Amino acid sequence: MQLALGPAQYYWRRNDINHFYEAMLSTPLDIIYLGEVVCGKRHELRAADWLERARILAEATDKQIVLSTLTLLESNADLNWVRKICDNGNWLVEANDMSAVQLLSEARLPFTCGPAVNIYNHKAVEHLMSMGMVRWTVPVEMGSQQLSGVLNACEKKPEVEVFAYGHMPLAYSARCFTARHHGLDKDNCAYRCMEYPHGLPLASQEGEELFVINGIQTLSGEAVNLLSHYPQLCERGIDILRLSPQWQQMAPIIDAFDRARRDDLDPQLLPPGVDGYWCDRPGLELIARSGIATSE
Amino acid sequence: MELVCPAGSLPALEAAIDNGADAVYIGFSDETNARNFGGLNFNDKNALRALERIRNRGRKLYVAINTYAKPDSFTRWQAAVDRAAGLNADAVILADIGLMGYAQRRHPDLALHLSVQASATSAPALEFYRQQFGIRRAVLPRVLSLKQVQQLTAASCVELEVFGFGSLCIMAEGRCHLSSYITGESPNKNGVCSPAKAVEWRKVANELETRLNGVLIDRFADHENAGYPTLCKGRFIVDGKRQHALEEPTSLNSMALLPELKAAGIKAIKLEGRQRSPAYVSQVVRTWREAIDQVLQHGDDFLVKDRWQETLAKNSEGKQTTLGAYDRPWQ
Question: Which GO terms describe its biological process (chain B) (predicted)?
């Protein structure tokens, strides 16, 4: 099992981003995804800066560097950003929408598909593999049963990556909810999302944490945590677990998953989170309440 | 500009035809379409009747098969495509690339329209679907501003359809899992958002609560109009403030932009609402027919009539409408 650091979802300051990735070099991660995936207006690091960051990290580590593209493209500027990432000439690219799939396949480059590309069955997997997809990060709402159905029906499988820890990206909009919260329009957003390095929580009127607002993106209110399902993830043939960048305490999360792959699985090392989607239930549920989940 | 109208039943389809639809889109009664609601949509017998009425009046029939096929029941989605082809439908509206591959191989003469659920928002994304599956038309997600729609129309390799009126999805369609996060069922997987079976209305003291799978979506005082608990239109707490943090109950209405959309080269206007009554379809279709005819005849002198605005507002969520993402300040 490999461990991947997914692309960062939040808008952090340039220095903080640089320090964060430098700190990741000494962790047992195998793969690091880099790049802006949420909003093309975010300019602490533009496309060229992310490519530079990739170059610096690649020089310092053997970990695989993958560049991720924007998820929701609206303007020509967004598309140009995606083109620059796809044209990088060195690193594998994670396509987060069909624009990137098209650009990469036209250039006859291999690519991975991120969780917001809608791949729900074996026919879709096979089609994209015929175009160059080498790795598939499963949509966050797909449960283990459907995933097994897909993989069992595939004649040839890509590498399979599952979103295993962190607040799950659930939705993308034209509207910036952070700006709206501050009474601003998106065109004059003043980059207020930078004030929320782990997002802006949205709760029900009873105080239940439902979602996290992050600019144009909405994330799950609770973090998914599939650590207790580690044995089942291995059995199901999952190749890679994606851990989503957290503003704080990233190292203990990586450590907990790394211990699992060294036969030292201890679910108590991390807060329980939720695992509903993986158990084919509503995403906000927690099914394996304690201990190690076993296959049914 | 073609007027593409919704029908969830035969009476709605007849209402659409009688009031000036150029094309009517329907779905089959199962999870293969994105309005998979009880008592709605068409079985084989009604689909044949629908086709007969369409052909008698010289209109077009489109079949929406726009959810994402499950691996274990892929044949159900294939069968839906076969049924649409067997009906000789004028097009199928698809989102799933697995299913598009099947449709193209099995029914090479069947026209494919790209569903809004596929969320294609750029020229290369549209080119992907044209090159791989030969789509002839794409329905654009309700996330683009008017200027972006104009730019995309200029760069597009296929004809484009946009939403004119109806319930407003504020998230990019096909890229929203809010519903499955709370209820387990989503548009992509099950063809439903905030499904009726998960809804509870509870009277508590002087308030009416709406819940989805037990989660409180909103509370209404006696004087407030309590709406259906669509997840993104509830009132939530952000930073201590109770507010419609994502969107208010409102409907999209882009009628004021008809001249610009026509000038940009938009080929079709879609009205949302397969889940709505024949009365809704009659009123909304007639209003849009008049408006489109006005634009076709008078071009730039087009003005939205008060009467049209009133009819559309009456048929809107929360009795109000918005230009949505077409208008930058909404974003």
Answer: ubiquinone biosynthetic process
